[in-house]
Every structure is written in structure tokens, then in C-alpha cells.
Amino acid sequence: MERHVLERLLAGDDEASAAALAALRSGATYHVWDTAHPAAQHAGVFALRLRRMRRHGVEPLGLERMVRLLREHGQPVRGGMIDSVDQKWSFLIYFTEDGSTLVACARFQRWVEPSPL
Q1: Collapsing DSSP states into helix, strand and coil, what is residue 38?
Q2: How far apart are CA 3 and CA 24, in angstroms?
Q3: 80 secondary structure, DSSP code
Q4: What kind and span of H or E run contains 115?
């Protein structure tokens, strides 16, 4: 998927998509997978991860919404990732199977390995 197409698809009204668009426009790297998988499969995995994250006091931006939208979509989705230039954030993005519409987006803080002393 070309960068300008991804930018157009991320022009939504939710906070996670807006943050992903800003990261992309700042030079973030990205990858969109060529294959599609059932949306329910992704929703189930991320529902479990959301519960674990909340137990540790972490609330990823847009993850609860992403789980809900994937469940509602009910059709196969293509996934992708955006990694911010500073490597602080990753964005998980899902599109319709043909890649024409954004289904959901969530932002995760990346784990940074502490530097050895």
C-alpha cells in the first residue's frame, strides 16, 4: 500500500487514527500485510491482551474500540503496523479485505530494552 493511500485511509475521527496519521506524516515506517484473516480471530486475541494490559494498569489508545469494531465487522481483514520514528509507539491497523477502508486502529507503547550500565 502506498503511503498517500494509507494517509487517506487514516483520516478518521478517532484519536488513535489521528495519532497514526501524524506519525506517518512524520516519517514513520509501516507495513500492510497482503493476506486477510477473520476479524473475529483478531478481536479475540486483542480482547485477551486488553484484559492483561488493564491488569497491569496499561490502557492502549483505541484498543477497546478496535476489538469492538473488529467484532462488528465480521468479515476478513488485512492488518498492518506503523512504527513511529522515535520508536516509542506502534500502531496496529486493520482494513477491509480489499484494503479500501480502515476498520480499526490502536496505539501501543513500544517496549524499550533498558540500556546496560
Answers
A1: strand
A2: 8
A3: E
A4: none
